[in-house]
Amino acid sequence: MNNIRKKFSLKYIVPLCAAAMSVSCSPGGGYISVTGYAQGGTYTVKLNMDTDKGRVRMSPDEIRSGIDSVILAIDNSLSGYNKGSLLSRFNAGETIVPDDIFIDIYKVSYDFYRKTDGAFDVAAGPLFDIWGFGFKGNSFPDDSQVNEILAGCGMGRLVENIESAVASDGTLDPYDLLRPEIREASDSPALPVLNYNAIAQGYTCDLIAGYLYSLGVKDMLVDIGGEIYCDGVNPGGTSWKIGVDKPVDGNDTPGAQLEGIVESGGGRRGIVTSGNYRKFYIKDGKKYAHTIDSRTGYPVSHTLLSATVLAADATAADALATYCMVIGLEQAMEFLETGKSLSGEYIEGLDGYLIYDDNGSMKTWSSAALR
Question: For labelling alongside 230, which of 15, 34, 43, 315 has CA 20 to 30 A away?
Answer without folding.
Answer: 15
